[in-house]
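thought: fold this chain, then report.
action: predict
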Amino acid sequence: MKKVNLIAALTVLLLSSACTSKQSIYEKAIANYVQSNRRGTWTDCKFKTLSIEKTADITVADSLKLLQAEFEKSCDEQIASQQCTLDYFNSLLKDNESAKYAKQAVDDQLNRNIAATQTRIDSLHNLPAAYSDLYKGRSLTEVVSVVVKCCYSYTMPGSGAAKERTDNFILSPDGKKVLGKEKGADL
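observation:
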């Protein structure tokens, strides 16, 4: 019985040290990210982790879904813009036709603009996704990044007041590099 308790205690100890080790890797990467600017200049902000928690793994399938949503949103915005342009040209054409001295040259130019704009709209509807080969040959369940929720405090140099923040950080699968930050959102 003592051997079973001893083995159980050692297992718990090993698992907790493994979790702590992974958290310290996350903490180091996040601390470097928070204290560095876009050019890589590091500033000591007296960074202190208050809590850190891995919240999600982002797989190839998740990434493809996010990229598809982003792609569709961008296409929809471009189509809406082109549709406004098309509506504008159609209204100009209608105004020109009802004008007392309608100009055939203006009609011809507006019709060419309408045709070109409609062609752009049609091509946007048929535009293939540019990221389709991004994960070629990789498993859909492969983890490409992890999301870590971190509550931390920092003090800017010259300022005596410590500030607290909670952010979701997107890290590489090994947790050694921060790829980005999603401010105040749960992924």
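thought: worth noting. The chain has three helices and four strands.
final: tokens above.
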